[in-house]
Amino acid sequence: MRKRKSPRKAVQPLETRTQILKAAVNLAFRIGVENLTLQKVAAEAKLSYFGVHYYFGGKDQGFTEEAARHVGNEAQKYISAYIDREAGDPKTNLLKSYIRGTLKWAHKEKEDASFWIYYYYLCSKPGSIQDLNQSVVEGAQIRVQRLLDECIGKRQIPRVRDTEALAALIHFQLVGAGVMLISLNKNWQATADLTLQAVDALIKAHSTRAQPE
Description:
By secondary structure, the protein is mainly alpha-helical. It has a domain at 89-206. It has helices at residues 13-31, 38-45, 49-56, 60-86, 94-108, 110-116, 118-122, 128-153, 163-184, 188-206. Helix 2 crosses helix 3 (49-56).
C-alpha cells in the first residue's frame, strides 16, 4: 500500500500578512521607508509580487501606512506585557514601567522602533491618514495620562496642575529618547535612567506644590 503523504500545513492569511509586514519593516531599516515598493518587499519576504499585491493592493504608500500600524500594535503588546509583569507589586510605579518597557522594546526591536518613528511623519501629512495617525499619538498620550492619574492616586507622585498637558510632554520626551536610542545606539537602561530623571523634573515643575515664578 502506498503511504499517504501527510498534508502540508497551509499558511494562514494572517501569518502571510504578518510575514509581509515584518519583511517591509526590516527592509525599511536598511534602505529607508521612502524607498519601499511592493516589489522590493515581495523579494524580501520571498513571495511573489502578485502575492503581496493580493494582500495590500497596488499602492506603495498605503502599504507603508499599514506597516506603521502593525508596528504600533506590536509595540503595545510588548509594552503591555512588560507592565503586566511588574504590576504584581502594588508599590510599582507603572508610569516608570511604561517608560522602561517602551525603551527596552525600542532596543530589542530596533527595526520596528525605527519604523515606529514613521508614525510622527505620517501625522504631518494631509489627508485621512493624518487624522488616523494623530489619533494613534493621542491614544499614547491618553495612556500616559491614565498612568499619571494612577500614580497620583497611589501618592507615588505629587498632584499636578494639568495631567493632560504633562502627559503630552512626557510622551514626547519618551519619543525623543527613542530617537536617541535608535540613532545613536545608546544603552537602553542608561537612556531609561536619563529619561526618568527628565520625567521627574517635568512632574516636579508641574506639581501643585511648585511655586510660580
